[in-house]
Specification:
Layout lengths: L2 H17 L1 E3 L8 E3 L5 E6 L3 E6 L5 E6 L4 H13 L8 E4 L3 E5 L4 E2 H7 L5 H16 L12 E4 L2 E4 L13 H17 L8 H21 L1
The structure holds adenosine-5'-diphosphate and magnesium ion.
Length: about 220
């Protein structure tokens, strides 16, 4: 194991995990995170996990699961299948409730829409290519939405592969791409409209309702 990873594992086990609390209150909303030790920074929250970094190990993130700890094994298996690809992170270590991953820099597309950072088409294309690559490795890109994809400059990345082992069809990304061409390019991006988080949250919840109703009646 890389020396830095080894040191980081020690810090995670001896300092981070004994202090940190990651609680999942709803399966549809991000986890609640408390008691972050000194020198650690929270860089993201998902519905399963909190993602943190240590200020002396800037190339890595630690993804600590709050619930569905079994998810750690599943996500690790997805990374094994994926192998190395420029649009994905990389797994360095698997603990019993956490993963050490390569840190991706940039912003999530969700935050880009919030901050009014223009999302070029090349980002969408990179992500499409990355998802095709995952399919070729026998995976099923699932739960790909605005908080699970990132951009830096003109490049797109997929930051969360935790549900790629699931079966079934998940339309989030295809719907997002449609919205990109129909609403983002001609209006939101063109006029540099920033969308506040409360509105993004409403859109997120309405989208889930829309999909649920559509499933029921189709
Ligand atoms: N490798 C990474 N590099 C940089 N940021 C990350 C990385 N992994 C996750 N993040 C950030 O943390 C957030 C939550 O991580 P994610 O893997 O989506 O958790 P969950 O599986 O709970 O949804 C992401 O939306 C992203 O902002
Ligand atoms: Mg996520």
């Amino acid at each position: 194991m890389d020396k830095n990873v080894k040191e980081l594992v020690e810090l995670v086990e001896k300092v981070l995990l004994p202090q940190l609390t990651v609680r999942s209150e709803s399966e549809y909303d991000p986890v609640a995170v408390k008691d972050i030790p000194e020198n650690w920074k929270l860089i993201g929250k998902g519905n399963y996990a909190a993602v943190l970094m240590h200020t002396s190990y800037e190339d890595f993130v630690v993804k600590v699961y709050g619930r569905a700890v079994d998810g750690v094994n599943k996500e690790a298996k997805v990374y094994e299948r994926l192998g190395l690809h420029p649009a994905y992170s990389q797994l360095f270590y698997k603990g019993n409730k956490y993963l050490i991953l390569k840190k991706l820099t940039g912003v999530t597309l969700y935050d880009a829409v919030h901050h009014g950072i223009y999302i070029p088409e090349s980002v969408i294309k990179d992500i499409n290519a990355a998802l095709d690559y995952a399919r070729k490795q026998g995976l099923n890109p699932f739960d790909v939405h605005g908080k699970n994809v990132m951009m830096k400059g003109s490049h797109g990345y997929v930051v969360d592969v935790s549900d790629f082992y699931k079966k079934g069809v998940d339309k989030k990304w295809t719907d997002l791409v449609k919205a990109y061409y129909k609403i983002y390019v001609p209006v939101i991006g063109k006029y540099n409209i920033r969308i506040p988080y409360f509105l993004l949250n409403i859109i997120r919840h309405s989208y889930r309702l829309y999909r649920k109703v559509k499933r029921k009646f189709s």
